[in-house]
Amino acid sequence: MVLAGCGSPGVRTAAYDRTASPPASAAQRRITVPGSFDDYTRQTGPEADRVVQTIRDAQAKQNAAYAAKMKIGVYQRRGNAQQRIAFLGLAAGDHPAIAQELRANPPSFEVDSALAAMPLSGPKDYPPGAFGGVLRCAAGAQGGAGCAWGDGSTLGVVAGSGTSADELAKATVALRKAAER
């Protein structure tokens, strides 16, 4: 999974062409990696550490500075080892270049770029929750789903296995509520 939106040239496809301007006064929030949210618990230990490092290494190939500041977590749904999700998040307060990019591009552009980097089809808009902005999710080409949100101050990506785009959208809103401050 690659978070192509921040730190890489804009990636656009016809399916991801909608744009909207960021709010003029988007509050600068930060992102944390919560221990749990909704029915999901953060995974720890050597296996989770390997997944996080693999994601960070892949992101470093795109932009090392962003990868170093990225918040990454791996979660498992309680009672269902088949439903796992990976979360990546960036906030404007993490680095001046991240702030500049998140404010320079419309949130939908950043969201579309992040989704275009994953093997997904048929992106759909969902209610983004209390923080506003844009939330889009799509089914994965090989099962699972991916979602991304952006609001001019934060960008988050969630990819999951064993879940539909609709289910992952609900989990993403819950994760965002727990992660954003």
Give me the secondary-structure topology:
Blueprint: E1 36-37, E2 40-42, H1 46-62, H2 64-69, E3 71-77, E4 80-91, H3 96-104, H4 107-116, E5 120-126, E6 134-140, E7 145-150, E8 154-161, H5 165-179
Antiparallel strand pairs: 1-2, 2-3, 3-4, 4-8, 5-6, 6-7, 7-8
Protein name: Lipoprotein
Region (Disordered): 1-27
Could you walk me through the main structural features you see in this protein, from its secondary elements to its overall organization?
This protein has 181 residues and is α+β, with helices and mostly antiparallel strands. It has one domain: Protein Transport Mog1p, Chain A. Helix content is 31%, strand content 29%. The protein contains five helices and eight strands. Strands 1-2-3-4-8-7-6-5 form an eight-stranded antiparallel beta sheet, sandwiched between helices. The chain is globular. It comes from Actinoallomurus spadix. This is Lipoprotein. Residues 1-27 are annotated as: Disordered.
Helix content: 25-40%
β-strand amount: 25-35%
User: Which stretches of 5+ consecutive residues score pLDDT under 50?
Assistant: 1-26
Instruction: Report the major sheet.
Output: 8 strands, antiparallel
Fill in the keyword field for this structure.
181 residues
Compact description:
The protein is an alpha+beta fold.
